[in-house]
Amino acid sequence: MIVHDIGKNFALAEFRSMARTMAVIVKEVPVEAHNSVGLVERYHTPLRRAFEIFQEDGFNREVALQMAVKVVNDIVGPDRLILTLLVFGVYPRIIKQSLLSPLIAV
Question: What is the pLDDT along the chain (106 residues), one digit of tens a residue?
Fold first, then answer.
């Protein structure tokens, strides 16, 4: 499920149809319900910071984004869970031969 505030980012019919093909529900929250997207807002700050660090180190945008998502998923969250370990049970590694995920794009 993708929960978002009102805006043009997720309003496109193409985005919604692509989400439906992947069995993802897109839910728009009302204007005054900022607390509903708080979890996303807490995730965005460290993701943005990691992305900027990788870009400063000279990585292109696509590689920097993929590495930033991995780093944030490998960090202990506020509820003391590590998302990567919760899902996979191990830390998957990124190596030079790893292809970019087609679903992660800038």
Answer: 777 767 777 778 888 888 888 888 888 877 666 565 566 667 778 888 999 999 999 999 988 988 888 888 787 776 777 777 777 777 666 666 665 555 554 4
The domain of 25 spans 1-32
Output the CA torsion sign for 77, 82, 87, 92.
positive
pTM over 0.85: no
89 and 56 within one domain: yes
Q: Are residues 62 and 86 in the same domain?
A: yes
Cβ count near 73 (within 10 Å): 19
**Residue 40 contacts residue 3 (beta carbons within 8 Å):** yes
Same domain, 74 and 57: yes
Find out whether 25 and 2 touch, Cβ atoms under 8 Å.
Answer: yes
> Which two tokens mark 106?
């800038």
H-only helix segments in the chain: 13-21, 38-56, 61-73, 83-88
